[in-house]
Amino acid sequence: MGVEPAGSRGTRLAIVHERFTEYGGSEAVVGELARTWPQAPVFAPLVDPAAAPAIAHPPWDTVTSTWLSRAHAATGRRSHAPLLPLVPRALRRLPLRDRFDAVVVSHHAFATQAVFATDAPVIAYVHSPARWAWEPAFRAQESNSPAGRVALAALGALARRGETAAAPHLTAVVANSRAVADRVRDWWGLPSDVVHPPVRLDRFAPDPAVPREDFLLFAGRLVPYKRPDLAIRAAQRAGCRLVVVGDGRYRRRLEAIAGPETTFLGAVPDAVLVDMYRRCRALLMPGVEDFGIVPVEAMACGAPVVAVGEGGAVDTVLPGLSGAHVPFGPDDVVIDGFAAALRERAATDLDPARIRCHAESFGPEAFRSRMAEVVARVLVTPNPDLPVI
Fold first, then answer.
1. How many domains does the chain have?
2. For position 387, what pLDDT does the model report?
3. CATH of the domain at 262
4. Are strands 102-107 and 122-126 parallel, antiparallel or unpaired?
5. Does residue 103 form part of some domain?
6. Distance CA 139, CA 259 (A)
7. Is residue 305 part of a domain?
8. Which of 204, 270, 274, 352 could cross-link 300 (Cys pair, CB 3.0–4.6 Å)?
9. Residues 175 and 247 grouped into a single domain
10. Alpha-carbon distance 262 to 243, whole Å?
């Protein structure tokens, strides 16, 4: 039996998100938080309504923003990156104090700074502590110029200081995967509980009339940390066809290393992506994700997933039921691991109905129920000794 969401009986709750400058998994999380607490206002320092479609509730134009949004608009809404160093200050000045009984923040790098804008209990839903701030190797692959590396290093130092200062003041921390919970423990010195982010499974389902075909799929942004290069090299080594769905700054480099076995489709409509999920032999996930929405979408369509056994894939991919794990290590080790798994048909010849059933455990209803439990328990016994579950 689920816990009635806090806010339904007069509790004043606020939701804080770091920035609305594009639409992705973290914005989907905010949408589900807003569905859980329909009366809760949403605050974000930086909002660009033109950058992404409206979330179902609330619409973008009802999100309370700050002077940073006006500054961004004044630039013609060019890149928001130069404004990021100002985000912590704007979060600390949000109009939260004395207005709410609890605040839920959606955190990537700066959102926990909202803890300094309120005396109410603060529950942090952590997509991840800022990996580019804490991991030099991760930061190095995110910048491709000396000036960019210097700027990102300075921003990383700001994010680390902010996260470290805010952590002791949080009432509860919720991580989106066990891997993120490990980072919260190692970098912030805090325990946390895990609530997996919501995946809109209604958009993804198997189609028994669509037969599986003998090609592999990589889907996602073509950026370095997702490691599409490893998917391409693994398909080459295994002698398999690969379809790459997605676009990004890494694409030209990937096309240079790809052979005739690899087809690039670029960014595609949802209907095409669903069709690829339904027809592929397996989805490849060679990058280490915080959670990873794409593999859950693929599994919802009955597709098995072959993934590096690190990060969110440890939570989402069950070997022998919904896919296979490949040992993490140097690039050649990962490529050999993928190639070996792909040569062994048993790793991908799995029951689509059982794969779909597993994916259903990551639906929005489970997310909303678990978050309602967290907030309800914090309000009953606000306790600085974490976790609250």
1. 2
2. 47
3. 3.40.50.2000
4. parallel
5. yes
6. 29
7. yes
8. 204
9. no
10. 6
String of b and e for 316-349 (b: at least 16 CB within 10 Å)?
Answer: bbbeeebbbbbebeeeeebbbbbbbbbeeeebbe
Report residue 178 CA to chain centroid gap: 13
**163 and 250 assigned to the same domain:** no
Nearest to 217 by CA among 290, 272, 162: 272
Q: 114 near 88, Cβ under 8 Å?
A: no
Residue span of the structural domain in which 24 resides: 13-198+363-380
As given in the structure block, the two tokens for residue 115 are 């803890």
Question: Does 7 reside within a domain?
Answer: no
Tell whether 335 and 212 lie within a shared domain: yes
Q: Are 323 and 225 within one domain?
A: yes
- 111 belongs to a structural domain: yes
| 389 residues of the chain, pLDDT tens digit each | 445 565 455 689 999 999 888 777 888 899 899 999 988 999 999 888 766 555 555 555 667 877 778 777 777 667 777 788 899 999 999 999 999 999 999 999 999 999 999 999 999 999 999 988 898 877 877 766 777 788 888 988 999 999 999 999 999 999 999 999 999 999 999 999 999 999 988 889 999 899 999 999 999 989 888 999 999 999 999 999 999 999 988 999 999 999 999 999 999 999 999 999 999 999 999 999 999 999 999 999 999 999 999 999 999 999 999 999 999 999 999 999 999 999 888 778 999 999 999 999 999 999 999 999 999 999 986 554 544 44
Residues 249 and 131 in one domain: no
Same domain, yes or no: 179 and 205: no
Same domain as 238, residue 356: yes
